[in-house]
Design goal:
This protein is α/β, with parallel strands linked by helices. It has two domains: about 1-145 and about 285-329, Isopropylmalate Dehydrogenase; about 155-275, Isopropylmalate Dehydrogenase, CATH 3.40.718. It is built from eleven helices and twelve strands. The protein has helices spanning about 20-30, 60-65, 90-105, 120-125, 135-140, 170-175, 175-195, 220-235, 250-255, 265-275, 310-325; strands spanning about 10-15, 40, 55, 70-75, 115, 150-155, 155-160, 200-205, 235-240, 260, 280-285, 290-295. The protein has a twelve-stranded mixed sheet with strand order 3-4-2-1-5-12-11-6-7-10-8-9, sandwiched between helices. α3 (about 90-105) crosses α4. It is globular and about 60 Å long. About 50% of the residues are buried.
Length: about 325
């Protein structure tokens, strides 16, 4: 794409057709119309009845019709969708949609991808899916070994260094290599995709009170602090290891751009407390922009038209902003 060419719109994947993804896509389109155009990638049979849509051949066509209809990149599925009842027969095509979206983004035909939630059990049952989730599957598609999951809202950006593992496995999993890679990818992502020239990074300790001088654990003394000092010598602006229980009040948050946390709940509890409905899942380290709403398929309310669309709206908005920042010379 030449520097003067307009940035192509994002692509939004359908996700699990029996979940809230298709109905949220239709409602997000109705809310935005032409203000944030995107191409929806999926089977239009899965959209709520009466949704105005128009088939497009490429994401670039979305802008010209988004004011009047939801632009749809058609992807045929073998079965219809019953809200709340996932059909493993659709699993292969759910994965194919993700792969197709990633290919569009990698080729420059899509400005970013916004992924709707998937159901891992349906994917395991119907397609032998073995990945922990979306993020790891996208990393494989992109040929990337290490990516980082960031949760972002206006008040806070957080990164869990370890993600979906039991708490008793965290100390063993939190290696110097993992923590250093997570910090470096986060630093690069904030520079490239958020336009922060010199990111300020806060790193939480693993133990209560960041170990309290070794009284509550020695990981901070023996591994985390020496690693952070090495990264500081490399020019990164890093504070820590910090006690996690004092990192997230307003005055503390004003002193950093992102918080790196040791494990899942240490990162997600504060952001979901601060802005449960508008948090966005961002994958850093991919060769393309990927965001996602920070919620699941919500089978219990699928098809009822009551799902909250705010996280998807924020994911779409942030994807566009990140793609525009990355495209700057």
């Amino acid at each position: 794409m030449a520097a003067c060419d307009p940035l192509p719109p994002p692509v939004m994947t359908c996700g699990e057709p029996a979940g809230i993804g298709p109905e949220i896509a239709a409602r997000v389109w109705a809310e935005c119309r032409g203000t944030m155009p995107f191409g929806w990638l999926g089977d239009p049979r899965h959209l709520p009845g009466g949704t105005p849509f128009a088939l497009i051949g490429s994401p670039a066509e979305a802008g010209s019709i988004a004011a009047d209809a939801l632009p749809v990149l058609h992807h045929a599925f073998p079965a219809p969708a019953t809200p709340g009842a996932p059909d493993p027969g659709n699993a292969v095509e759910v994965l194919a949609v993700i792969a197709r979206a990633a290919a569009l983004a990698q080729s420059g035909k899509a400005g970013a991808i916004v992924t709707a939630p998937i159901n891992k059990k349906a994917l395991r049952d119907g397609a032998g899916f073995t990945y922990p989730g979306h993020t790891e599957y996208l990393a494989t598609l992109a040929g990337v070994r290490h990516v980082v999951m960031m949760l972002a809202c206006n008040a806070l950006k957080v990164v869990p260094a370890t993600i979906h593992i039991p708490i008793h496995e965290v100390p063993r999993a939190l290696t110097p290599e993992l923590l250093a890679g997570t910090i470096r990818i986060t630093n690069a992502g904030l520079r490239r995709d958020f336009g922060i020239a010199a990111p300020r990074i806060a790193v939480a300790g693993l133990n209560p009170h960041a170990g309290e001088g070794g009284a509550m654990g020695r990981e901070e003394i023996e591994m985390i602090a020496p690693l952070l000092e090495t990264l500081r010598r490399d020019g990164l602006d890093i504070r820590g290891p910090l006690p996690a229980d004092t990192m997230f009040h307003p005055e503390a948050r004003a002193r950093y751009d992102v918080a790196i946390c040791a494990y899942h709940d240490q990162a997600l509890i504060p952001i979901k407390t601060l802005d449960f409905a508008r948090g966005v899942n961002v994958t850093l380290g991919l060769p393309f922009i990927r965001t996602s709403p920070d919620h699941g398929t919500a089978f219990d309310i699928a098809g009822k038209g009551v799902a909250d669309i705010r996280s998807t709206l924020e994911a779409l908005r942030l994807a566009g902003e990140m793609a525009a920042t990355r495209a700057q010379p």
